[in-house]
Specification:
328 residues; 18% strand; two-stranded antiparallel sheet; globular; Spore Coat Polysaccharide Biosynthesis Protein SpsA, Chain A; single chain; 2 domains
Length: 328
């Protein structure tokens, strides 16, 4: 099917690119890139944590030095016109990378497969099946345009559990098939270039649920037909864990409360776009989350934190005539 396979580590600032031929999937090079945490000397951990705070990129620059075939793409320097001046979160970085690959790296075959990985997966849980499973599923099954990695989490997945319960409570039959996914909010997805250029994107935390909802509600159908969700498979890889966000946001770090608000807002937005949800009283005012902080002001009063909830939504890349003209 696809001549080229690309896999990427999703990072809001930089995305890592690996290009190879299908036979390379059978090798063990991908897992070896990420060392097991227990094999890293304590002083190396301290140094790398310090580097992460200094440049915001974690170990990615070091990976590029150690592995010559790895290319780091600073997507902030290659934004599509409609993303300039907009927040660059996870979803925005993914969309910008796809645009860059098509317009600058001459990736034109709609059958090419791109896979995204979250960059904070704990190495002990990562194995070759994370790549071979989704890519192999797309190559093997006709009509499958995308494959989503799913797994069990040792903690059960806090936000994932809340989203599943919310979907179950919504009186929308089109969304209910999403409950058949083992893990709704996994960020590891492989898809054909055709898939990635016809789906909409949220800029940040809402990217996974908005993409699923768009497929389930018929807002996007990569290969035609009434329901794009039927063109996505799920691939179970066992257990997974990653760095955990705190329950409560602070002045310096987003917590699960802020993430949940963005995910819920993305789901409601998709329902509105599909004509499944309408508010009797709506407002164009910016959605904001008001959070009490555990710290106290000098006066002894409660301190408050205000965070914007709504994230920018970007249309499918295929809607850009100059990009659509490049695809074959």
């Amino acid at each position: 099917m696809a001549a080229h396979i690309l896999c990427h580590l999703t990072h809001p600032v930089t995305v890592a690119e690996r290009v190879g031929r299908p036979p390379a999937i059978a090798t063990s090079t991908i897992p070896s890139v990420l060392q097991r945490r227990q094999d890293i000397e304590p002083h190396q951990q301290t140094r790398r944590k310090r580097e992460q705070h200094q440049n915001g990129l974690g170990r990615l620059p070091g990976l590029e030095r150690r592995y010559p075939w790895l290319t780091l793409v600073p997507v902030a320097e290659h934004l599509p016109a409609d993303q300039r001046g907009q927040p660059l979160g996870k979803g925005g970085a993914m969309r910008a990378l796809i645009h860059y690959l098509v317009t600058r790296k001459l990736l034109r075959d709609r059958r090419a497969i791109l896979q995204f990985f979250d960059a904070d997966i704990k190495p002990a849980f990562f194995h070759i099946g994370w790549l071979a499973g989704p890519v192999g599923t797309i190559l093997w099954y006709n009509g499958v345009e995308a494959a989503k990695v799913v797994y069990f989490r040792p903690t059960g997945g806090r936000l994932n559990a809340l989203v599943r319960s919310l979907i179950a409570a919504l009186p929308c039959p089109a969304l209910q098939p999403l409950q058949q996914l083992v893990y709704l909010l996994s960020g590891e997805i492989a898809g054909t270039l055709r898939f990635w250029t016809v789906v909409p994107f949220k800029a940040g935390y809402g990217i996974e649920i908005y993409l699923l909802a768009a497929l389930a509600l018929g807002l996007s159908s990569p290969a035609g037909g009434p329901c794009g969700l039927e063109q996505m498979a799920q691939v179970f890889v066992g257990q997974m864990d990653h760095r955990h966000a705190p329950w409560i946001s602070s002045r310096t770090q987003a917590g699960l409360d802020q993430m949940a608000a963005a995910v819920f807002a993305a789901l409601f937005e998709a329902l509105e776009a599909a004509g499944q949800l309408a508010w009797l009283q709506s407002s164009t005012a910016m959605k904001r989350l008001l959070l009490p902080l555990r710290e106290a002001e000098a006066t002894g009063e409660i301190a408050w934190l205000l965070r914007e909830v709504a994230e920018p939504t970007f249309p499918p890349l295929i809607s850009q005539p100059e990009l659509a003209a490049l695809l074959v």
